[in-house]
Design a protein that fits this description.
Chain A has 398 residues and is an alpha+beta fold. Chain A is 13% helix and 30% strand. The termini of chain A are far apart.
C-alpha cells in the first residue's frame, strides 16, 4: 500500500513536471540517467540539484561525491524520503503553534512547540539513514527507491530531550514497553489510515536519547524533513524519526499500523511482512568510501582515500581500506571532530596507486569486535545493506 | 591605509548599489537601520540576507538570533570581513590549479592544490572570529565595522595539515620562529604592496594544528571566504587565517607588512600601532547569549537561555548565566557534540523570569581558572572585546 501510494504520488508529479516527462514516469524509479534529469519536487526546491540524484517526488539521494570531508551533511544535499506526501506548508507558517500530544505518562498533555521550548534544550549529531539505503545494489529489483550510498547523512538536530518532557509530565506509566510516535501527514479521503499512517514504535528506553527537534543543521526543520517538529531517535533507521510528530505515546504494545506491523520487516525474498520478523530499528555497522567517488581517472602515485563509518550499535573502533577489491587491507586514520557515537566518523588512508584499474572499498570495525561484512543479506525489501563489496568504487589510473 | 582602502571599496559599492543608495554611503558603516537596508555585495550574494547585517561591501555580520542551537554556523550566515577586495572569481574556476609556495623548509617548493590533496587530509571545527568583533560596543567610535556579536562563527574546515606538507618537504629549517603567510589579493596600480598586502606571521609552532584548507562546511571554500585555498590557524583571530594563500614561509622574523607591523596591534586609544604592542594572535575567553537574542517580549515562567562559549587558550570548563545584569549567577549546562578545543561549546541554563525587564548575560570559565571579565579593555582599534556586561541582552516579560 505504502509503495503503491508512493508510485502514485511520484507518477502524478512526473507527469506534471516540465522536464523528465511522462516517459520517465512510465519507466519507474531507478535509471540513473533518467533520475539525474528529473527536477526537484516543489517541497525540496531548496536542494542543490547539481549534487543530488532525484529518484522520485519523495526520494532524493546525495551524490557520493557530494559528501565532502567536513563531517556534516548540509541540508541542501541531505537525502529525502517521505513515505507519504508532506502536509501542507501552512503547518510551518506558525511553528510555535504546532501541537504534540504526550500519552502513556502520569500526566498526559498536549503541548505546543512553544511549550516544548520552555522545557529543555539539547543537540545531537547523528546519522540519518533510510532503511533501504543500498537497495540499488541488490539484484532482485526490490520496490522502492534504488538508493546507492546517498540515502544517509550526518546531521545536527536540536530540540528538547524527550526525557525532559516525560519528567515534566510525571514520568512514563508503569508497564509501558514502547515509545509509539505518530506523524502528522494527512491522507486522501477513502484511504484506511492504518494502512498509510506513519506511526512507529521503538523500545521505550530509546527516549533516553531521543529529541523532539525543531532545528536541523542550524535552521528550523524544513517541511520536507519533518518540520515544524520531528522525533529524533539517534542510532535508529530513518523511518523511526517520525516527521510532523503529533503524538508520542508510551505503550504496552507496538502499533498495529501497517508501517510497523508488516512494513519495514526483514524477510526472505518473496515473503510478506509480518510482526514476527525483525523490524528496522538500530542501524548496523557500515562504512563507505566517498572519495574517490568512482569513475575517476587519477594520476599514479599517492591518493588520500576517504569516507565515513557509522553504526547504531557498538561504537566505531577502526576502519580499514582496500584498493584491490578486498584481497588486502590497510588501516585508515579516523580524522576530524568526534561528534559522538551516533554521528559518523570520517576516515582517510593514504594509498599508492599504479597504472590500471582499482577497486577501492572500506570496512568498519566496532569496539565489540563486530566487523562490517563483505556481502549483503538478501531480503525482500532490500533493507540494511552494509556489505563492503557492493559499496566499492572503481577508478582508473592512467 | 587598510581602513582607508576599505572605505573606498565600500563607498564605490554603495554608490553603485541599487538599494541603500548614496545616503548610506555618506553616512559610513554602522547605523543598524541603514545597515540592514544594504544589499549583499556580489561576492557574498549567496548569504541569507534575512539573517545577516550588511555593514559594508567587505563587512557582513551574523544576526545574534540567527546562530541557532545546532553548533555549526552555516556558510550562508557566516560573517564576512575582507581587508581588501577578493581576487577575481577566475581563481576558483580551476581550483586544483591554485599554487602555493612553501618556503623556509629544507626543500622549498611550489605546490598546486591538486598536489596538496595527495599529501594528506584532515578536518577541524573552530571558531573563526574577527579581531574587532564587539567593536560596536565601544564608546570611542573606533574605525572599522561596528560588529556586535556576529563577527564570529563556528566552522568546519578540511584540507591538508601544514605539518604533513612540511614533513613532505624535509621539515622546517633551523632557526625559524614564525609561519608567515601571504594572501593572493591583487591591488590597484600605484599602491605600495607592503601597506595593503595581507601577510601575517604567527609563531611557527602554530603549524602543528594549521591546515591548508580547500573546504568550508562541506563545500569548496567560497571565493569570499578565501577559496580556493585558505590557511586555517585554529585558536587565532580571523586575520591570521590568510585567504587565497599563495605563500607559506617559515621565517626568522615577523613580516614587515603594515598589517602585521602596525595593524592589528592592541594599544591605548589615540596611539599609533607599532611592533612592540601585542598583536592579535590567540583569541581570548568569551561567551555570549544567542537566545533570547534581545528585544523580545516573553511569557513569564521558565526560559531556556542559551549561547556559545569559546577561547583560543585554556579550554572551556564551565559557563554561568545571569538574568539580573551580573548581580547573581547560576551554572549553565554545556550541551551538544564537543567539537574540540577550538570549536565553541553551546550552553543552556533554565531560568524563571517574572514580569519586568531582565538583563541576561553569560560568562565563561576556563580549565586554568581564567574567568571572562566584566568589562572591555579600552583600545584604539576596539579589538578583543570579551567583557560580559556589554554582551548582555535585554528582554521584557509581560
Amino acid at each position: 500500500m505504502k509503495e503503491a501510494l508512493e508510485v502514485n504520488v511520484a507518477r502524478r508529479w512526473l507527469l506534471a513536471a516540465s522536464a523528465g516527462g511522462a516517459a520517465a514516469g512510465l519507466g519507474g524509479f531507478s535509471s540513473p540517467s533518467l533520475a539525474q534529469a528529473r527536477p526537484l519536487p516543489p517541497v525540496a526546491s531548496f536542494k542543490d540539484a547539481s549534487r543530488v540524484i532525484v529518484h522520485s517526488a519523495s526520494g532524493i539521494e546525495t551524490q557520493r561525491s557530494a559528501f565532502g570531508t567536513s563531517g556534516i551533511t548540509d541540508t541542501d544535499i541531505l537525502f529525502l524520503r517521505n513515505n507519504i506526501a508532506a502536509p501542507d506548508a501552512a503547518i510551518v507558517a506558525n511553528r510555535d503553534a504546532w501541537q504534540v500530544q504526550i500519552d502513556g505518562v502520569t500526566q498526559p498533555r498536549t503541548l505546543t512547540l512553544a511549550d516544548l521550548k520552555r522545557i529543555g534544550l539539547s543537540s545531537v549529531a547523528m546519522v540519518l539513514q533510510c532503511s533501504g539505503n543500498g537497495r540499488g545494489f541488490f539484484a532482485h529489483k526490490a520496490s522502492g527507491s534504488q538508493w546507492k550510498v546517498g540515502a544517509a547523512g550526518n546531521t545536527l538536530w536540536s530540540g528538547v530531550p524527550v526525557r525532559d518532557v516525560v519528567a515534566a509530565l510525571g514520568g512514563v506509566r508503569e508497564g509501558m514497553r514502547y515509545m509509539t510516535s505518530t506523524g502528522g501527514e494527512t491522507f486522501p479521503p477513502g484511504i484506511d489510515p492504518q494502512k498509510v499512517m506513519v506511526e512507529r514504535s521503538v523500545p521505550w528506553i530509546a527516549m533516553e536519547e531521543a529529541l523532539l527537534a525543531w532545528e536541523l543543521n542550524g535552521e528550523p526543520v524544513p517541511l520536507a524533513h519533518g518540520g515544524p517538529l520531528r522525533l529524533i531517535v539517534p542510532g535508529y533507521y530513518g523511518v523511526n524519526n517520525v516527521k510532523y510528530v503529533k503524538r508520542v505515546a508510551f505503550t504496552v504494545d507496538e502499533t498495529s499500523a501497517t508501517i510497523q506491523k508488516s512494513g519495514y520487516r526483514v524477510r526472505d525474498i518473496g515473503r510478506k511482512g509480518d510482526p514476527t520478523q525483525p523490524t528496522m530499528w538500530h542501524m548496523n555497522l557500515k562504512s563507505f568510501v566517498t572519495g574517490p567517488a568512482g569513475g575517476e581517472t587519477l594520476r599514479a602515485g599517492p591518493v588520500q582515500v576517504h569516507g565515513v563509518a557509522f553504526t547504531g550499535g557498538s561504537p566505531i573502533k577502526a576502519v580499514e581500506v582496500s584498493v584491490d577489491g578486498g584481497k588486502s587491507w590497510q588501516a585508515a586514520t579516523l580524522f576530524g571532530p568526534h561528534l559522538g557515537r551516533y554521528a559518523w566518523r570520517q576516515f582517510v588512508a593514504q594509498v599508492t596507486l599504479g597504472a590500471g584499474q582499482h577497486l577501492i572499498t572500506s570496512r568498519a570495525i566496532a569496539v565489540d569486535g563486530t566487523v562490517q561484512p563483505e556481502l549483503r543479506v538478501e531480503n525482500e525489501r532490500a533493507y540494511a545493506h552494509n556489505g563492503w563489496r557492493d559499496h566499492a568504487v572503481a577508478v582508473t589510473v592512467a
